[in-house]
Amino acid sequence: MFDYLISGAQVLLPTGLARMDLAISNGTIASIHEPAEDVPARERIDADGLTLLPGAIDTHVHVRAPAFPERGTVTTETRAAAAGGVTTILEMPVTIPTTATAEQLNIRRAHFERDTLVNFGLYAGLGGMDEAQARALRDAGAIAFKIFTTAVPSGREAEFEGLACPTEDQQYMALEAARAADLPLTVHCEHAALLKLFGQRSAGADRTEAAYMNASHPAVCETVAVAALAAMNADVGAKLHIAHVTSGRTAEVIRRFSGFSDLTAEVCPQSLYASETEVRRAGVDGKTIPPIRYEADSDALWRALADGTITQVATDHAPFDTSEKNASAGNFAAAPAGVPGLEILVPAMLDAVARQRLSMPQAWDLVSSGPARRFGLQGRKGQIAVGCDADLILVDVAADTVIRAETLQTQARGATGIYAGRRFRGKVMRTIVGGATVFSDGAITGRGGEGAFVAPA
Ligand SMILES: [Zn+2]
How far is the CA of 23 from the centre of ligand 1 (A)? Predict the structure, then answer.
């Protein structure tokens, strides 16, 4: 007797799409078989006309909890993940206090475990650490490390303990420590000295204009930082992962380092689906760092996804309370940087499949199996196979998702300007986490606590 039987769906298997029935027992995939009448199950889910996919694994998420509850809580943001078809989030260490010790990691783990609707892994900061400290964080269950190649943003010292590595010697040592712990090192890449130069040059620029962001944070800062890290990592051999690539030139640098440095990279939906034009329309809602760039960059990033240069799509989900964004309306220098993405990712990828920019296996390698491989979750997550965790989504590839603030779960629903009214082809109908349905037919059904802590194998 199985717990659940999902019947009638097209199922994305490692070999491609096939019409199969799938049974779940004890939170794992227990059977994948040809449709049959007499399979005993406690609950049957009729999925005729739907597609069954591995849940998305978003490797770049900021919930920040337990700090900053006004910007979102474990409950609000993992509800957003559930509604968005994201069954695992990897949560960044930028919070107060920074996740930079095993003790802090354990406190955050306990805080998330109580309320989370989806699985979660926790990043740790790494800057200034030696190899023994890095191994201690790995032993506590850190999923990966994070650093920035930039200085600490002024006034945010408490959030950035051990995260800022603005010089190459610091970055080189961070790569060494990550290698010693055998965990990925995810890097926010903007070259600190160039950033300072362009900051000075744009000091007199009009801060009410979206163009201020690309003037003060031009793509060359990103491209140079990525090239330097890739070159250093050819020497060190860590698992280097580049966060939120925004420009075509950076994608070209990554392409040229292929096979020479152990390098993976992610792009965010906002860099694929928006350009400075949308930011001009949305105002500071569309402020991100590094910034959303130009249509030519979006085109180059789509090509880099299609040819395998960029290996992941992740959101950099960073919710801000509307009042916080509004307080800096019209001031791109002062506004908080970040857009919500957990409810965008899966519809955006389904839309890319519907428009034949990517095949379904390609798209799901970018948001599920690829992330699982890179972050040590392979064999448990990221694919539909017997024995894997039952982290699954049912989607309707023929229905549309229209992004409207009032139907989003994230606390940052008011700050979705770049997506307001956007119609994506493809819709999440049901989200299953560890065998439990946490979202179904437009409503949250999880009560919290369904998700589990994930650590690398
Ligand atoms: Zn981020």
Answer: 36
How do beta strands 392-402 and 51-54 pair?
antiparallel
User: How far are the Cα atoms of 254, 429, 446 from residue 47, in angstroms, in the given order?
Assistant: 40, 10, 20
Q: How far is the CA of 92 from the centre of ligand 1 (A)?
A: 7
Q: How far is ligand 1, taken at its centre, from the CA of residue 418, in Å? A: 18
Q: What's the CA-to-centroid distance between 186 and ligand 1, angstroms?
A: 10
Query: What is the strand order of the sheet 86-91 is part of?
Result: 56-61, 86-91, 119-125, 144-148, 184-188, 239-242, 263-267, 312-313
pLDDT digits (tens, 9 = 90+) for 217-272: 999 999 999 999 999 999 999 999 999 999 999 999 999 999 999 999 999 999 99
Q: Above 90 in pLDDT, residue 162? A: no
Question: Which pTM value belongs to this model?
Answer: 0.97
| Chain segment 59-89, per-residue pLDDT in tens | 999 999 999 999 999 999 999 999 999 999 9
Q: Is residue 83 within a helix (H) or strand (E), and if so which, with residue range?
A: helix 74-84
Count the helices and strands in the chain (H runs, E runs).
15, 19
When the pLDDT of each residue in the chain is averaged and rounded to a whole number, the result is: 96
Contact 171, 163 (CB under 8 A): no
Burial of 42 (0-12, 13-18, 19+ CB in 10 A): exposed
Structure tokens at 187: 């890097």
- Using CA atoms, how far apart are residues 68 and 96, in angstroms rounded to an integer? 8
Q: Is the dihedral of CA 26, 41, 82, 418 positive or negative?
A: positive
**CA–centroid distance, residue 456 to ligand 1 (Å):** 20
Identify the structural domains of the chain with CATH numbers, from first to last. 2-52+388-444 (2.30.40.10), 55-374 (3.20.20.140)
CA of 351 to the centre of ligand 1 (A): 24
Cα(187) to centroid of ligand 1, in Å?
9
Task: At 15, give phi and psi (nearest 5°).
Answer: -90, -5
